Amino acid sequence: MKKSRKNQVPAVSIIDLNGDDWYVGEGAHPTAWLPARVPGNVQEDLWRNNKKPDPYFGENAAEYRDTEKKFWSYKKAFMFAPGKNELNWFLVFDSVDYKADFFLNNEKIGSHEGMFSEVRLAVGHALTSGCNEVKVVIHPLAFAPHASRAHINKYCLHRHDGRWMAKSLMSFDWDFAPRFVPTGIWKDVRLEGKNGVRLHSPRVDMTFNSDHSSVDLVFLADADVFEHNDYTVRLSLYEGTLPRGKTGGPKPALRLEAPVSLNAFNNEVKLAGAFKKPKLWWPLNMGVPFLYTAEMTIRNRRGEVDTIRFNVGLRSFKMIRSPADSQAALPLPSPALNNETVMAVNGRAFFYKGVNFVPMDILFGRIDNARIKTQMDLVKDANIQLLRVWGGGIVNRDYFYELADQYGILIWQEFPLGCTDHEGNPQYRDILGHEAGAIIKQLRHHPSIALWCGGNELFQPQSGMAPFDRIIRMLGAISYECDPERIFFPSSPYPGALHGPYTFDMHGAGLHGGSVDHVQYCNDLPNGAYNECGISGAEHAWLIEKCLPKDEIWPPAPKGSWEFHKGFNAWQKGDSWMCLALVEKYFGPLKDLADLCRASQFLQAIGLQYLCEELRRRWPNITGSMPWCFNYPWTTVAGSDIVAYPDVPKPAYFTIQKTYAPLAVSA
């Protein structure tokens, strides 16, 4: 698997600990071990070793519920030769899910809780020359009591189990995913040796003049200081992207250098300078997403100590008042309904053409760079400019954001909160605060990151939260402290925006009280932006046949695998997401699965086309379109996705591709 190394080029010494030579066993002190893969998940290893059935088929995912309540242990032996240089050695896990203790040669070296932040453990004292063994003990999940302030019903009951974990809530059952809660070492592992300083978490602050012909730049990075000393830090900014692993380049477009004295109380490096005639980074179809390569090197009198390299896109991003908001000043203040919702890049306001994006798999360890490349190529080819990385999901591998930088795709990144009440637990709040800071520092140098958002639908009745809750205020404060130039939204939808509609004919939603024709509903859309909207449709017949037992494939029924794979009783009680009665309303009786899928997908495609074209026609009164949803993490029988699991476009994908083209004709 090709790796993305979080800005390290190259470290003084790295020993890759990924691979198929790990072992996993049940309990904190297993008596039996199974072959395991890292990155991966405990649940996938059980499946691969025939201890559990295929979780993507039938109702098999339910058979993994017992794995949530057990200890699991990983182990691996590796060889180590210290070499001549005295380095500071660290065992580094890019992410571990969820709570774990870590051992090296039977000595406990640390503990961690949280799904997304890096685990970095000093191990120089525990390493031996020759064979070493690392062991990781994953704890059972500790579920939260149900939220007292939230509106509890059958369709959001289980997600409250995870409300006090900094973990993907999608895993606790959603209208497009089963109750399937993975654990394990789901990102890369390595042994890393460093000299006196480790540079990490770069940030670039930019202040442009009025016409973007010049920019004042401030480059910052955090420093882990192992040797208090006087250093020199140099920043070289090269045009274009340099091949991975290559340091240096042609003459830099900008070079900055300054002395710095680093110690335990001063652990940030900072360089500032003006840059004229910058080549700007633009979103897809608005210009070239031009990238520079920044190379930051720190040296002492003995030579180079550490170097990091990262992409830089020079661009401004703002949310501004809608050009359509020309109303006269009111005699008394009133809530904003359509204000401050327009995105502007480099001073140019635009109608954003986006989609929502969820995890690519229910087993997060399976999401490798190849899967990411396939999905991001599909995003780019569909003319999509903005991805909302939904708060019930995950923080993706860095390669996801690197491709977004290269392709000109803006990222609306949400923190791991959604659709439940996250207040009430100080220990969870502390863990979430640490995770949020780590997420921001991991991603903040990417020009594709447009904004941070507290989470999904936090202020709805099923969640029970409010904008002034302590967790929301904490996330805003952390965002400002770690990345003061970027926007922070408390939650989506924000004032003036809406989530919905979700089906071809709306029933008791939005403007109308009863069943409403799709065209009428779209023509009456009142809000300024639509950050979730979509139409459900069946998946491809051949995909449904792969995930359902043969004796259940036809006819569809609101039970068994059809219900388990979200065809019925998924979002609301009854016929969602299959919408069988709706399809038969327009096409009459359906003779088989292929007939059903063709008709349903046709309704989804034309419905989404009309909806998104109407949103686009209404610019600047409506400022953006963001259908739910681009992808799904497993095979449902029906849903609002336009790319079926794992990466198969549905007809609706091609209508979005056409509707989002730079020039689209509609009537």
From TrEMBL:
InterPro entries, per the entry: Beta-gal/glucu_dom_sf, Beta-mannosidase-like_N2, Beta-mannosidase_GH2, Galactose-bd-like_sf, GH, Glyco_hydro_2_cat, Ig-like_fold, Ig-like_GH2
Domain (Glycoside hydrolase family 2 catalytic): residue spans on this chain: 341-463
Gene3D superfamilies: Galactose-binding domain-like, Glycosidases, Immunoglobulins
EC number: 3.2.1.25
Biological processes, Gene Ontology terms: carbohydrate metabolic process; glycoprotein catabolic process
Domain named Glycoside hydrolase family 2 immunoglobulin-like beta-sandwich: residues: 199-315
Molecular-function GO term, any one: beta-mannosidase activity
Coiled-coil regions, chain positions: none
Keywords, ordered alphabetically: Glycosidase, Hydrolase, Signal
Catalytic reactions on record: Hydrolysis of terminal, non-reducing beta-D-mannose residues in beta-D-mannosides
Pfam families: Glyco_hydro_2 (PF00703), Glyco_hydro_2_C (PF02836), Glyco_hydro_2_N2 (PF22666)
Family stated for the protein in its record: Belongs to the glycosyl hydrolase 2 family.
Protein name: beta-mannosidase
